Amino acid sequence: xxxxxxxxxxxxxxxxPLAQSYKKIHRQAIVADTHNDVISSVTMHGMNIETDLTGxxxxxxxxxxxxxxxxxxxxxxxxxxxxxxxAFKYANAEIDSLYAIxxxxxxxMMIVTNPSELAxxxxxxxxxxxxxxxxxxxxxxxxxxxxxxxNKGARYMTLTWNNSTSWASSAxxxxxxxxxxxxxGLTALGKNIVKHMNETGMMVDLSHVGxxxxxxxxxxxxxxxxxxxSCAWSLCPVPRT
Length: 241
Hints:
- This protein has helices spanning about 1-10, 20-30, 40, 60-65, 85-105, 115-125, 145-150, 170-175, 190-200, 210-220, and strands at about 30-35, 70-75, 110, 125-135, 155-160, 205.
- By secondary structure, the protein is an alpha/beta fold.
- The chain folds into two domains: about 20-135, Metal-dependent hydrolases (TIM Barrel, Alpha-Beta Barrel), CATH 3.20.20.140; about 160-240, no CATH class.
- Strands 1, 2, 3, 4, 5 and 6 form a six-stranded parallel beta sheet that branches.
- Strand 3 (about 110), helix 6 and strand 4 (about 125-135) form a beta-alpha-beta unit.
- The longest helix is centred in the middle third of the chain and has 18 residues, at about 85-105.
- The protein is globular, with a radius of gyration of 21 Å.
């Protein structure tokens, strides 16, 4: 009975000396958001994240600060309607748009491409702006296009979006068994792209990819991978995990 009473007291009376405000923890931490579509969904549609976009969209520069975001990875994205001669151009337009925003706001944000620049941004309390390419179709099957995006600051790439590429099958296509190129997983070109990303230091992002593509990438990568915006099947049993 004594032990039950003690447990009851512990449950109803918070041990305040060890309690810490979640807001304090949040402010003390370096908070990174690994995926935000604001460039493709807002900037490229004529809205300006340098202004207050409350009620119009979820993100703008002031709300990044208010929310305690220290590192924002901006998604460079276009959907499956973009392909040869259009997807890569659109990726570059998005990257150029982000650079333009940062250049207009040097006291609030800076482009970050390596740990040294990240440390500077954190020290100066600027939003550290990074870029990740969402969808391997944006390189249009060309490794030299991948290099261009790396050189412009992109630091991860999802091998697919919902649409498969000619070299990697997506979760959406694998789950429906409607593969446009006939096979699941990575082709020889896909494996070369993963190896090249390893060599250049670009992170392999496995969000959106099919299960076979996931395992093929895991089998050949020599560097850690990321899954920037997905969940685990055991927690959320949907195809894109």
